[in-house]
Amino acid sequence: MKRILSVVGARPNFMKVAPIHRAFAQYAETWEHHIVHTGQHYDAAMSDAFFSDLDMPHPSWFLGVGSGSHAEQTARVMTGFAQVCMEAKPDYVIVVGDVNSTIACALVSVKLGIPTAHVEAGLRSGDRSMPEEINRMATDAIVDELFVTEESGMKHLRNEGVADHRMHFVGNTMIDSLHYALPKAVKSTIVHDLVLKQGKYALVTMHRPSNVDDPEQLRMLIDVLTTVAITQPLVFPVHPRTRKSLATLAMEIPEGILMVDPMGYVDFLALMRSASFVLTDSGGIQEETTALGVPCITARTTTERPVTVEIGTNVLVEPTKTGILGAVNRIHLGEMHRGQIPPLWDGHASERIASIITSHYS
Ligand code: UD1
Q1: pLDDT of residue 218
Q2: For residue 362, how far is its CA from the centre of ligand 1 (angstroms)?
Q3: 179 in catalytic set
Q4: Judging by DSSP bridges, how do beta strands 2-8 and 92-96 pair with one another?
Q5: CB 290 within 8 A of CB 40
Q6: Is 215 found in the same domain as 153?
């Protein structure tokens, strides 16, 4: 029996690993699959809620690293994960996404000579001021196997000299989770609980350092939301980073903007699928809205997920008043394209990953 460890750390990792865990259950005679949680995110709303929503087992190891500077956080994850690798002696490690826990654990396992895979490899925004871009490039440069969600990822990896046999276009494990949880989301009462009407509200999320750490930028964004909220209510689940920054602004938030705590996965999915549009600076939400066919305005000038713009429902806009209000107007005028589902975003990416890893390593 071989042992495989998948790492989760921050909120967007949970939905990428949950279906991988289920897929390896199909190979239980070969693999014992375990989840390691670094504890990069630790608030119940940012972490615990996802385990129950996604029917994930408790992590076998929890490192409890918490917050800190990039250097501190990365270093703590590395020290903790090295200890786990010593104890668990894994035969294979999977890291997902682009957060600090991703690169930290990849560095540890690759240096210990453990075969390591990156799920969601090859995505590039071209914006090196984003910490995630550095995490993606560094992780892809060192891992053994690279699992890719969209064609652009294959192109970037080829350009960076990755050999063809190491990269696999398998689709998107985040969309596997979306398919899995949709029946639960359909039953969620959150839209009703928040006194909203299907299709008659917009959903907002903002947490990128470039949008929320600078008080002037955040003030401008709240100002824009205040204008949008005149025509329809906005629900805004507030990330802890944003909440902290908002507290320093002492701004009056109008009634039309419903600020709520970060949500569990199922309720958030329910809010997304019934929204008239979503305004965000997240990476994953660009993909989820494309899969759901809901218009998405991304307040960023670049995206590492171009398929969501090319064939999905996403538009990129300058994170300015003119940029955002222009896109909202186009939605009101019915000018947004309906979009299509990208290739292999069919709910079976994790099964492909488990099958490929098993054929290479058993
Ligand atoms: C991280 C990821 C980002 C991802 C986001 C999703 C990196 C570099 N960034 O950003 O790619 O989109 O998660 O949420 O890994 N905090 C809490 N409770 C928590 C977690 C964080 O209060 O459970 C607060 C802390 O004050 C912390 C701040 O939020 O300092 C930022 O947390 P951190 O994990 O450093 O980065 P995120 O902005 O969450």
Answers
A1: 96
A2: 36
A3: no
A4: parallel
A5: no
A6: no
339 within domain boundaries: no
Euclidean distance between CA atoms 87 and 82, whole angstroms = 9
Beta strand pairing call for 296-298 and 234-237: unpaired
Residue 163 domain-assigned? yes
- 95 Cβ closer than 6 Å to some ligand 1 atom: no
d(CA 255, CA 218): 18
Q: What is the pLDDT of residues 52-87, one digit of tens each?
A: 999 999 999 999 999 999 999 999 999 999 999 999
- Res 290 pLDDT > 90: yes
Residues 146, 104 share a domain: yes
- Alpha carbon nearest to ligand 1 atom 18, residue: 43
Question: Are 203 and 223 in the same domain?
Answer: yes
Residue-wise pLDDT tens digits, 314-358: 999 999 999 999 999 999 998 887 899 999 999 999 999 999 999
pLDDT in tens, 221-249: 999 999 999 999 999 999 999 999 999 98
- Domain co-membership, 251 together with 349: no
Residue nearest atom 11 in ligand 1 by C-alpha distance: 99
Q: Which residues of 13-35 are buried (b: 16+ CB within 10 A; e: fewer)?
A: bbbbbbbbbbbbeebeebbbbbb
Number of domains into which the chain is organized: 2
Q: Which domain holds residue 25?
A: 2-172+345-361
Same domain, 219 and 140: no
Q: Is the CB of 152 under 6 A from ligand 1?
A: no
64 belongs to a structural domain: yes
Clarify whether residues 163 and 200 are in a common domain.
Answer: no
pTM of the model: 0.97
In one letter, which amino acid is 48? D
Helices (H) and strands (E) in the chain, counts: 16, 13
Nearest atom in ligand 1 to 241's CA: 29
Q: Do residues 225 and 93 share a domain?
A: no
Query: Alpha-carbon distance 258 to 236, whole Å?
Result: 6
The answer as to whether 177 is a domain residue is: no
Q: Are 115 and 201 in the same domain? A: no
Q: Are 119 and 20 in contact (CB under 8 A)?
A: yes
Residue 79 sits in a domain whose CATH number is 3.40.50.2000
Work out whether the CA dihedral 76, 81, 82, 84 comes out positive or negative. positive
Distance (Å, whole) CA 124 – CA 127: 8
